[in-house]
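seq as requested:
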Amino acid sequence: MAAVSLVELLQTVALAHEAGPVEGPLARAWNVDPALLIPVALAAWFYARGLRRWDERTREHPWWRTFFYASGLALLLVAIESPLDRLAEHHLSMHMVQHVLLMTIAVPLILLGAPTTPTLRGMPRWLRLGVIRPLARRTPVRLAYRWGTHPALAIAAMSAVLWLWHIGPGWYDAALRRPLLHDLQHISLVGTAWLFWWNVIDPKPLRSRLPYIPRLLYIFAASVPQQFLGVMFTFAEHPLYQTYADAAPILALSARDDQVLGGLIMWVPGGMLLLGAMGIVFAIWAYKSEQAQRALEAERARERAAAAAR
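struct tokens:
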């Protein structure tokens, strides 16, 4: 089997002459799904309202956090509501783009926005004090939070969900054919990615359980199952999903080449994003270590000066 390079595949990605069963221009194929639009609108409103009502701040909340939060919500909508979703129904490669956007970009951006305090402050009083606070005090909820954010369980959950949806017998095809299952697929992928990134990012005022250096190993461990899945797609000799084999192509790609491209997208860009996250974590560790060392040296200098003055 001749390997198809990423460059050769990208050169073939152009709109086909026969676009298949897509009615009207692809650029107009936007979804209007209230089940997603309403929660995202509420999340944005609570966050913005909470920032306006957060007068006496006990910690800094710089502008870039708000920018990242808004960008994460916007990418969430782009991944699900834009024509990308229509392309993902016909092409595995576009579905992989969708999953990378959701799991590796949108979720960490939202968490970098430190949404807990602004969102809670932006909620109506009856919701915050009458619903959220009593639930947060319940032992089962506290245990679920404690165990759900445990680093080992977070990696296991994300890897299991990713692999079950992609290699579970008939799971992926069933999700493509049944809208409710497709929604469940996206919810489970985003939910487990949220647990994973929670331990990489300190979503203030809450903090990750992991010190910075173990976070590097944590990210690497989570990348391995994704990389193996990408390799499997790239080098599989036959289409893995009958739905894509039968689908009318919108892009000028055969089902085989589309699958190779999907594997490369998961393998290369997905892996590079995780590698970039490792680089950022390492840079933060180095910066904080240098700050701590300087503070220690300054404290020792003050002690020596005080001893000399006696």
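Confidence is low (pLDDT under 50) at residues 1-20.
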